[in-house]
Every structure is written in C-alpha cells, then in structure tokens.
Amino acid sequence: MSDLETNLAKAETYLARFRKDGVLNHINGQAVPADDGETFTSISPVDLKPLAQIAHGKASDIDKAARAAAAAFKGWSETDPKERARILHRIADGIEARAEEIAFVECLDTGQALRFMSKAAIRSAANFRFFADKAVEARDGKSLYAPNQLNVTSRKPLGPVGIITPWNTPFMLSTWKIAPAIACGCTVVHKPAEFSPLTARLLVEIAEDAGLPPGVWNLVNGMGEDAGRALTEHPAIKAIGFVGEGATGSRIMRQSSETLKRFHFELGGKNPVIVFPDADLERAADAAVFMIYSLNGERCTSSSRLLVHESIYDDFTAMVAKKAKNITVGHPLDPKTTVGPLIHPVHEEKVNSYIKLATEEGATIAAGGYKPDGLGDGCYVAPTLFTNATNDMRIAQEEIFGPVLTAIPFKDEADALHMANDTQYGLTGYIWTADLTRALRFSEALDAGMIWVNSENTRHLPAPFGGNKASGIGRDGGDWSFDFYMETKNIAFAMTAHNIPKLGG
Q1: Does one domain contain both 395 and 475?
Q2: Does residue 466 belong to any structural domain of this protein?
C-alpha cells in the first residue's frame, strides 16, 4: 500500500468510535447526549462525507455544565498546586501517547495536512507542561514598599470560565486556553467549534484519564447562537476566552454585558510582511510562503499582506509565485501534501469570492486562483498570489483566512509603515531588513501586538500573545494567562501608628 492508503486505514480505526457512537457532551465526568437528544452532522472537508453525529447542546446543557464547573471550583481551586501540576503533566503524557490518533482525526476533521498536524500533539503537550510548571507560582504576587506602609499582592483563581475555540487547529488551541485555566485553579466549560468537534472529545477524555476530577473540565458541543450564547450569558461563568472572528467577539461582548464578564479575545488579522531591499530575500520569501500557505492559510497570524520595496518587487514576487506553484495540494493524510482542503464548503465559497473579487479590483493572479483537478468534491483551493495590488483593495484590507497572499509595492519606509498600519487589524507583523536601527524604529511604530524581525512566527511560551485594534483584547501566554484567569488582591499593612484623621469627635 501507498503511504496515503496506509494512513487512511489507520484513520478509519481511529474514526470508528465516532462513526458508531457519535460525539457526546461531557458534563461532571459523564459522557451525555444533549438534553433534547438532538444532534448535528459533522462532515469532512476532504470529501464532504459525514464523519459523526454530534450532540447539539443548548441552554439547558450549558446550564448543567456551568453548575458542574461551579460545584467543582472550591475543591479544585484549593487543591495543592503541586498536585495540579502533577495532573497537568499526566495530561501531557496522555496527549503524547495518543499523538497519532489526535493527528489523524484532526486531519480528517479540519483538512489540515499531516505534516503539520503530526506536531500538534507535541505542541499541545508542551502547553500543558509549561503551565504545569508554573502552577506552583500562580498565586505569587509582589511586595510594594511605601513610606509607613507595606503592600502585598497575591492572586487567586477567578472561578468557572468559558472557553470557545476555533475550527482551524482546534486541539492545540484548546490546550493553549484550557491548560493555564486549570493550572491556576479555575474550572472550565468548553464549547468547541461546530465545524471541527472531534478532537475536543479526545482531549477531555485524556484529562480525566490523567486524574482530573469530574466537573473541573466540561464539554458542550453546539452552535454559537444557542450553546455559545448560553455560555456567554450564564451568570456562573466569570470570564470568556474566545478565539475566532471579530463579529462573533462583538456579539459575545453584547451578550455578556448583563453579567459583567472578563474577556480575552484572540481575533483576526491582516498581517503585513515588510521586505526591504537589504533583507536576505531567499529567507524572507521562504518565511512569507510558510506563514501564508502552511495550515491552509487558516490561521490568524498568517502573513496575508506582502509589502515589498518597489526596487525588488518584481523579482521578489516572482520568487514567491514560483514557490507557491510548487506547493503540493492534496489529501491531508498524504505525507507529500502541504495544503489540504479548507474547513467547509461555506468557507471555500468565501475564499473563492475573494479570488473573483481580486480580478474585479484590478489585481493580477500570479499563482493559483483555481481548484486543483483530481481531488474530488473536497474544499480545495490552490495556493494563490495576487500582484499589482494596492492597499485600498478589499483583498488587502479584509481577512480571507485561506491560502491567499496579496503583494503590494512600497516606495520608502514611511510608505511601508503607512500601509502596514492602514487596516482595522493589528495582530502581527514581520519585518525583513539587515538594518538593525531600521528594524527597531519600524517595529516601534508598527501597530501590532506581536512582531517578528527576520523570522517567521516562532512562539516562545512565556511571551505575551495578542493583538491591537480589531485583532483582539488582552494577552495570554506565561504570566499574562494567569492575569486573565486570576484576580489580583492587594493587602496594605501599616508599619507605624500613622495619623488617622478624626471625624465626629
């Protein structure tokens, strides 16, 4: 058998349980159907065929999950941090032990290529180990001296929190949000994206097999308009961590206003790669291609705008176009595949609408722009590059969230900075130059929450992650995650019998 045939056979063994039993919710340690018994069908973007029936949770299911999380909070928040750390390390062990299963299921659920998803479990386990090691210091604070007074701060877990995760790399992003929450003592109600719900079920099973007490981590599947809304409105839920579209983030804020929840929003981006003539052009091209065409271009940090100095524009875009044309599009379980199918026909239609729009706006399709032949009914789009574009075009302003790159020339540094900042988003930026002074000056002025200089996106777990403007609210990663999931308390101790004003005698 070929490598693809071998992988397909393995995948079927992992999918058998889902095809047979579907995907249930998980509340207070029990796998349960939706209260009303309703389900919805999850399809694979590879061939649009059904994968499983998914429990369609609604308000009553969210209520049960939130109550379970609230009931479990006291015990879990008071658990010795060293014990919480041990459990998180065991969760990481469990993830690593089922790495192949996680990767294969996620490939068929999302369309992401195995060459990237094979590393998903490793990264996810690393998330749990990082926050496991930080659990013992989660409550640590500062001592702040003032004349005649000593202030001592500490942190305590916030309470039950809601986590709403996206469909693009659901397993890894779930671990990124949930690991710090349970590490510091919070309990969780998790609503995964309806387009890719399978691996969330694996993750909560792994957690409880590792010794996580019932009720600490609850899972409810459903749609944004029912389960999602109920979660954001529930009074027992103290915070919402959300990854997804800006429009959905706005709705969550409105829905949660009555209960005054805390928010962390990781939203969209239209991230610029700025290439100056003195850059290592081969490395810059490789980085730009990697950041837009890996993970099918379906990630918020993708390099979706390519700003190139006019003196090298033609040569550099020709280099990128050549690389894009050489990328293999195919079945996600084929080891040779780099770009798999997009998540869903609805999303495929959205991406294709921008390809059509590009020509209407006057841009040139230098690579891609079509559906590859011979791949069946799946949601495939070839890696696409637009040239002869301007920054005011919709293809340069709106998040496409697919393997689509828009290349725009600039005249000088001021022109590049203006275009880089001239968008509603401010998530990431990538600067390529050999001039350190220029890199410092440009990065300081670039309106983005995260910037990489002469590098693609390489995550450092202690560093803050988040964006400006319409790209999000707040930061997570390292201590920033604990700042979100915990309340800070200040206690002031008088060090002398200082004068107290006398009122009333």
Answers
A1: no
A2: no
- DSSP character string of 308-334: EETTTHHHHHHHHHHHHHTSPB--TTS
Active site residue 266: yes
Is the domain of 188 the same as that of 326? no
Specify whether 204 is located in the same domain as 345. Answer: no
pTM, to two decimals: 0.96
11-19 long-range contacts, Cβ below 8 Å, gap at least 24?
A: 11/104, 11/105, 11/107, 11/108, 11/333, 14/101, 14/104, 14/105, 15/51, 15/52, 15/105, 15/108, 18/51, 18/52, 18/105, 18/198, 18/201, 19/51, 19/52
> What CATH number should be reported for the domain holding residue 262?
3.40.605.10
Identify whether the C-beta of residue 10 lies closer than 8 Å to the C-beta of residue 104.
Answer: yes
- Same domain, yes or no, for 180 and 100? yes
| DSSP reduced 3-state for 355 | helix
Check 107, 184, 300, 379 and give the catalytic one: 300
Same domain for 167 and 259? yes
Q: Is residue 394 part of a domain?
A: yes
CA torsion through residues 55, 68, 235, 263, sign: negative
Query: DSSP per residue over 86-144, as a string?
Result: HHHHHHHHHHHHTHHHHHHHHHHHH---HHHHTTHHHHHHHHHHHHHHHHTTTT---EE
**Looking at residue 467, what is its pLDDT?**
96
The per-residue pLDDT for range 414-473, each reduced to its tens digit, is 999 999 999 999 999 999 999 999 999 999 999 999 999 999 999 899 999 999 999 999
Q: What is the CA radius of gyration of the chain?
A: 24
Specify whether 359 is located in the same domain as 477: no
Containing domain of residue 418, as a range? 272-453
Quick check: helix, strand or coil at residue 303? coil
Same domain, 279 and 375: yes
- Which of these, 4, 66, 57, lies nearest to 34 by C-alpha position? 57
Q: Is 176 left (phi over 0), alpha (psi -120 to 50) or beta?
A: alpha
Please identify which of the residues 266, 298, 348, 399 carries the catalytic annotation.
266
Category of 286 on φ-ψ map: left (φ > 0), alpha (ψ -120 to 50) or beta: alpha
Please give the Cα distance from 444 to 238 (Å, whole number).
35
The 10s digit of each residue's pLDDT in 363-408 is 999 999 999 999 999 999 999 999 999 999 999 999 999 999 999 9
Q: 413-421 vs 436-445: helix axis angle to the nearest 10?
A: 30
From residue 259, alpha-carbon distances to 177, 232, 238, 244 in Å are: 21, 9, 8, 21
Question: What are φ and ψ of residue 484, in 5° steps?
Answer: -75, -45
**Cα–Cα dist 42/46, whole Å:** 12
Kindly state whether residues 217 and 283 are assigned to the same domain.
no
Measured CA to CA, the distance from residue 62 to residue 188 in angstroms comes to 11
- Is residue 494 one of the residues assigned to a domain? no
